[in-house]
Amino acid sequence: MMKLRQLEIELEEVLKFKNPKVYLEQYMTPPHLAACLLHMADSKFHDIYGKTVLDIGCGSGILSCGASLLGADYTLGVDIDEDALTLFRENCSMLVPSNSVECLQCDIRQYMTNKSFRTSFDVIFMNPPYGTKNNKGIDMEFLEAATNMFKTAIYSLHKTSTRKYVCKRAKSMGLDASVQAELRYNLDATFTFHKVKSKDIEVDFIRFTPTKQTVK
Amino acid sequence: MLLSRILNMRLITHNMLTSHVKGVTNGYPLIIEATEVEEKEVDFNPEFISRMMSRIEWPALVKAMEWIGKKDCLPEEPIENCEKDNDFLQKAHHALMEIEVITGSLKCPESGRKFPISNGIPNMLLNEDEV
């Protein structure tokens, strides 16, 4: 298996958004963070190697690249934004040797009520928008859409301040939430509306699994 | 920058996509109307294809090949113990991994709604009234 440090070095090559869109909250998951999360999912839970992975709100593609580097069989990145997908393809084609990543343009929230993909993905990764700018609750919409599309686990990041609410909502969706790590996430000064140069937010890394009663 | 490979839509992905237009009950498989297709050689990994076989809807893959204009490349049904048959896996590999749709569209078999493919990326965005 690829070592954590090696994975991080690879992911540091991922290109960032040149003109991130504020309304889509396009900040990149930092390489160190992405590497830690993916490595944990693979080493602790065996959720990546040989699995199919869906990366919701894939953005620059750092999670898809990492999943593929850790040996995922097939990874599909989905994003609403065409520019993000262009960057995604650039990054994946540069970093991923195995031809195992593809992407798709869609609004994942449109998959909440209607049919989703034909097959479920083994694992879903997402670093959803936190809904801080006029779209409150969007991370829960992402989670709800994800519940229709997975078999084993959903890995997601949510603000620590909303943990109680997230766990409660997850339960109503038939998911058990298990907080794997508390992180301090540095958003750099990606967006001009950030008043300070660099801002840490507290984020939970959560692994969601189907509650026992809902296992088919 | 030298790009090692552009990730265009392949039939492995087509095999998973359904139409999610409101009211549609049978939106699978999406009909491929390709105007630009490329074939690119990809390293054959029999273990990978073997694992993927359980996740592939074979009749849809056969249909997809027909729409691409390569009807006779695949058997109508997977043969017995196909996971272990190298010759079979090679054919599956070719269909799933080596054919890329660059331009065209994916048509919902029920509503006729077309999802465009451009630069190798399918666009599955719906308008508000279609959700």
Features:
heterodimer; A: 216 residues; alpha/beta; Rossmann fold; 7-stranded mixed beta sheet; globular; B: 131 residues; alpha+beta; N-terminal domain of TfIIb; 5-stranded antiparallel beta sheet; 4 helices; 5 strands; rRNA (adenine-N6-)-methyltransferase activity (chain A)
Write a brief caption for the model:
The complex is a heterodimer of chains A (about 220) and B (about 130). With about 220 residues, chain A is α/β, with parallel strands linked by helices. Helix content of chain A is about 30%, strand content about 25%.
Could you give the topology of this structure?
The complex is a heterodimer of chains A (216) and B (131).
Chain A: H1 4-11, H2 31-45, E1 52-56, H3 62-69, E2 74-79, H4 82-95, E3 101-105, E4 121-126, H5 138-147, E5 150-159, H6 163-172, E6 175-186, E7 200-210
Parallel strand pairs in A: 1-2, 1-4, 2-3, 4-5
Antiparallel strand pairs in A: 5-7, 6-7
Helix pairs in contact in A: 1-2, 2-3, 3-4
Chain B: E1 9-10, H1 11-14, E2 31-39, H2 46-52, H3 58-68, H4 86-97, E3 99-107, E4 114-118, E5 121-122
Antiparallel strand pairs in B: 1-3, 2-3, 3-4, 4-5
InterPro entries (chain B): Trm112, Trm112-like
Keywords (chain B): Cytoplasm, Methyltransferase, Nucleus, Transferase
GO biological process, one term (chain B): tRNA methylation
